[in-house]
Amino acid sequence: MPATPLIAYAHVGKSFDDGRVVAVDDVSLDVAEGEFLAVVGGSGSGKTTLLRLANRLIEADRGRIAVEGEDVSRIDPILLRRRIGYVFQSGGLFPHLTVAGNIGITPKLLGWPQAEISARVDELLDLVRLDRSQYRDRLPHELSGGQRQRVGVARALAAKPRIVLMDEPFGALDPLTRDALGDDYRTLHRELGLTTVMITHDMTEALLLADRVAVMHGGRLLAQGTPADLSASTDAYVGELMRTPRRQAERLGALLPRDGAA
Amino acid sequence: MSPSADPRWSEAFSHLPDYLGSHVRVSVSALALGLLISLPLAIVARNRPVLRTALLGLASIVQTVPGLALLALFYPLLLALAALTAAWLGFSFSAFGFLPAVLALALYSMLPVLRNTITGLSGVDPAVLEAAQGVGMTPRQSLTMVELPLALPVMMAGIRTAAVWVIGTATLSTPIGQTSLGNYIFAGLQTQNWVFVLFGCFAAAVLALVVDQLLALIENGLRNRSRARTALGGLGIAALIAATLVPSIARPHARYVVGAKTFTEQYVLSALIAQRLQAAELSATTRAGLGSNVIFDALASGDIDVYVDYSGTLWANQFHHTDIRPRAELLGELKTTLAKQNITLFGELGFENAYALVMPRKRADELGIHSVADLGSRAATMSIAGDYEFFSRPEWAGIQKAYGLTFRAQRQMQPDFMYAAVASGEVDVIAGYTSDGLIAKYDLVALVDDRHAIPPYDAIVLLSPKRRDDEALKAALRPLLGRIDIAEMREANLRASGNDASSSPDAVARWLWEKIGIR
């Protein structure tokens, strides 16, 4: 059953500074409904630009992008963004709004009744495992980095989007928090039936969380596929990216033999 | 002497509701107007570097114009505008007092508000702006829900600065006819009433501090997101406005407004005229401390009803004559010219307040100087002081031309200080006023102008166009005409320049009336 992909990039291009910097070069990529796709690449690879083209934070120069079957250039960008969840690097929370105010912002923009927003905020605090009574009225600066990112995830999910875009969401966190948050999000993704595109520079994180991984380099899409597909790739850059997690896995396997089965 | 025993304190307090109320009213209006203009401008300019630079540059230039000059400039500007609207649109407005003061002060308040708003808005973290866009805010929602709330503390700091500037500068709006706490200061400086000067400065400072602290409370509340503090500050400001506005609204408006320029004699004469009107059961108030460039236009446009001017001043300044005529001829000509503008030259008070070159009597006798001509070549070794306008007036050019005088040095001085300066020998000659009481006090002598280089300066009563046929007003003023001689005026001026309880313009005016009323 070849369902239409939820997000479809077809020959998309974007350049900056009057064409001197090509950020995204003829990229075609489909994201199926319910899929968790990680886009991996170094800085300047064009991965963040690719993500932002989907909710029109950046406008494409060439090609066509479809979200839920609709050409995004024909959708009001404001309305488009309100129906797509977006998780920013290190939270991007509004410093003058409480946790509840931050989480409820998109529903508020959509004109939900206050009581409904309030109930939704509590529901989301439960989902991201933050204690309602304790965190609801706190300001972002009173939270730890991990808590802030949990609020960021809750905010992205507030208006019940089908699609969530994540821009290096766990990059700035300590490894333990990062691991816990990644697992928790993975569970949410599955339980809520979300379609997620996550940007990361960390191949290990991509392999552990995503169903499928796309590799960007110099604005081009070098490879895409399951971890197994990428393992088999003959591309030199992909091979280099895959070497780190593989070596880590081998070393850890040797050092911690009893954990191997987990 | 305890403050409570000195009637000047109670007199100062009796003016407080009026002066403070007007001061708050003009300051608040100016600040509100300034904000209304500056905030949208800053918001529009924040992402436009060229406009931003131009705006901040312009606001900085305005800031460098001295407050007094800025205020004074708005008067003729508005007067011209009022004439235009009257000619083209069929309506006119008063260019006097409130309006020019509000406009000039609003302009004055713009720099700190513009600068802080732009700084505050451009200081918002780009990541937060991106988030605002990402969650689906329109540019306007991003501005109102994110950017302005985040910039608010910095903006409030600018508004505080503007408020203090406006409250301070509003004291300078007295000369353009806006009653303010500056009335204490201008009147006090002119009549050497230091109680008034101190009272005015103190009241303005306290008002500025109170408003600043209330705004600080709001700022603090916004910074710490404490609604209680923000509300308390807002409530304080509202209460202050209400408290100062209520008495001045409740006060009945006087029918007649008596104008006065910025020197002692004018304060005394306007008080005398107001007392005469009140004695005739005509309600009257004085508008003292008006700039000499403002007062004539204010009369012509009916903002004031009556004031005392001097024939030579009008002749040279208002009608730009450079020739000098004999006394009666000049008065006759003035009367005709004024009548063309529907202004009534009601009559002379009886004395002249002319410019005269003045020296200590002792020194003049020693040197054998009795007339201006006697100064002759000695002038080259002497210094001369005059008031701020004297050296640019035609009288000075006339004296130089008629007598060929060149002095070693020229200095400009506050008129009240130059008599002491010449008495102490700090300067050799001053351009004084013949009716000034200090001439007698310091035993000075006015040198004879035998070549008639200085025009006559008869004190004359002028009535505004709408009072041309006001017989009640004329009847009340008639007893003053021709009754005040130079000796009496000098003594009145000397009394008024004293630094004690009996030296208020009102008290001196009563004394003067008793003196001339008996005859």
UniProtKB/TrEMBL annotation, chain A:
<dbReference type="InterPro" id="IPR017871">
    <property type="entry name" value="ABC_transporter-like_CS"/>
</dbReference>
<feature type="domain" description="ABC transporter">
    <location>
        <begin position="7"/>
        <end position="243"/>
    </location>
</feature>
<keyword id="KW-0067">ATP-binding</keyword>
<comment type="function">
    <text>Involved in beta-(1--&gt;2)glucan export. Transmembrane domains (TMD) form a pore in the inner membrane and the ATP-binding domain (NBD) is responsible for energy generation.</text>
</comment>
<dbReference type="Pfam" id="PF00005">
    <property type="entry name" value="ABC_tran"/>
</dbReference>
<dbReference type="InterPro" id="IPR003593">
    <property type="entry name" value="AAA+_ATPase"/>
</dbReference>
<dbReference type="GO" id="GO:0015697">
    <property type="term" value="P:quaternary ammonium group transport"/>
</dbReference>
<comment type="similarity">
    <text>Belongs to the ABC transporter superfamily.</text>
</comment>
<dbReference type="InterPro" id="IPR027417">
    <property type="entry name" value="P-loop_NTPase"/>
</dbReference>
<keyword id="KW-0547">Nucleotide-binding</keyword>
<protein>
    <submittedName>
        <fullName>ATP-binding cassette domain-containing protein</fullName>
    </submittedName>
</protein>
<dbReference type="InterPro" id="IPR003439">
    <property type="entry name" value="ABC_transporter-like_ATP-bd"/>
</dbReference>
<dbReference type="GO" id="GO:0016887">
    <property type="term" value="F:ATP hydrolysis activity"/>
</dbReference>
<dbReference type="GO" id="GO:0005524">
    <property type="term" value="F:ATP binding"/>
</dbReference>
<keyword id="KW-0813">Transport</keyword>
TrEMBL record, chain B:
<feature type="domain" description="ABC transmembrane type-1">
    <location>
        <begin position="20"/>
        <end position="219"/>
    </location>
</feature>
<comment type="similarity">
    <text>Belongs to the binding-protein-dependent transport system permease family.</text>
</comment>
<dbReference type="GO" id="GO:0043190">
    <property type="term" value="C:ATP-binding cassette (ABC) transporter complex"/>
</dbReference>
<dbReference type="InterPro" id="IPR035906">
    <property type="entry name" value="MetI-like_sf"/>
</dbReference>
<feature type="transmembrane region" description="Helical">
    <location>
        <begin position="194"/>
        <end position="218"/>
    </location>
</feature>
<feature type="transmembrane region" description="Helical">
    <location>
        <begin position="20"/>
        <end position="43"/>
    </location>
</feature>
<keyword id="KW-0472">Membrane</keyword>
<keyword id="KW-0812">Transmembrane</keyword>
<feature type="transmembrane region" description="Helical">
    <location>
        <begin position="81"/>
        <end position="108"/>
    </location>
</feature>
<protein>
    <submittedName>
        <fullName>ABC transporter permease subunit</fullName>
    </submittedName>
</protein>
<dbReference type="Pfam" id="PF00528">
    <property type="entry name" value="BPD_transp_1"/>
</dbReference>
<feature type="transmembrane region" description="Helical">
    <location>
        <begin position="55"/>
        <end position="75"/>
    </location>
</feature>
<dbReference type="InterPro" id="IPR000515">
    <property type="entry name" value="MetI-like"/>
</dbReference>
<keyword id="KW-0813">Transport</keyword>
<feature type="transmembrane region" description="Helical">
    <location>
        <begin position="230"/>
        <end position="250"/>
    </location>
</feature>
<dbReference type="GO" id="GO:0022857">
    <property type="term" value="F:transmembrane transporter activity"/>
</dbReference>
<dbReference type="Pfam" id="PF04069">
    <property type="entry name" value="OpuAC"/>
</dbReference>
<dbReference type="GO" id="GO:0031460">
    <property type="term" value="P:glycine betaine transport"/>
</dbReference>
<keyword id="KW-1133">Transmembrane helix</keyword>
<dbReference type="InterPro" id="IPR051204">
    <property type="entry name" value="ABC_transp_perm/SBD"/>
</dbReference>
<comment type="similarity">
    <text>In the C-terminal section; belongs to the OsmX family.</text>
</comment>
<dbReference type="InterPro" id="IPR007210">
    <property type="entry name" value="ABC_Gly_betaine_transp_sub-bd"/>
</dbReference>
